[in-house]
Amino acid sequence: MSTIQAVENQRRLRTNLALQADGATAENLPLVLIGVGISVNVLTAFRLGGPAGVLTFLLGESAQLLISIPLTVLLLIGITWLSNIYFGTLRQAVVRLAAFSITCQAVGVLMLVGLPLMAAILWQCWR
């Protein structure tokens, strides 16, 4: 075993021990982000389009996740193989990518819908 591999193994061991000591909260964070992201998106879809908006959003989101997450995981597997970087287990990689994707989408929705709505409310208050 090379020195680089030994150092990487020690780093992984320290990371795993830190996660175990932390009560696995780091493992639950992506699931929390998925829940918050989907909630923000569904509530926004309902506010803008009613039940039909929610259905449309859920169908579109499902299709987007079924296409983008597997392709991104394949890309991560390729990067891992080429660079010997550790991204966790396959399940961890899928959950983390889904959390990242949904959270970014929720932040974008809040920026596009929430800020103009807040500006309109403030404008009415100041008038």
Structure report:
The protein is mostly helical. It has helices spanning 3-21, 25-83, 90-126. The termini are far apart. The model has no long low-confidence stretch (mean pLDDT 75). It has one domain. The protein is elongated. The longest helix has 59 residues, at 25-83. Helix content is 91%, strand content 0%. Helix 2 crosses helix 3 (90-126).
Short description:
This protein is an all-alpha fold. It has helices at 3-21, 25-83, 90-126.
Main features:
single chain; 127 residues; mainly alpha; 3 helices; 91% helix
| Rg from Cα | 20 Å
Number of strands: 0
How much helicity do the residues have? over 70%
**How would you state the average pLDDT, rounded?**
75
Order of SSEs: HHH
Largest β-sheet summary: none
Derived from helix and strand composition plus strand pairing, the structural class reads: mainly alpha
Instruction: Quickly count the domains.
Output: 1
- Indicate the low-confidence ranges by residue numbers: none
Q: How much strand content do the residues show?
A: under 5%
Roughly how many Å apart are the termini?
A: 72 Å
Helical stretch count?
A: 3
**Shape field:** elongated
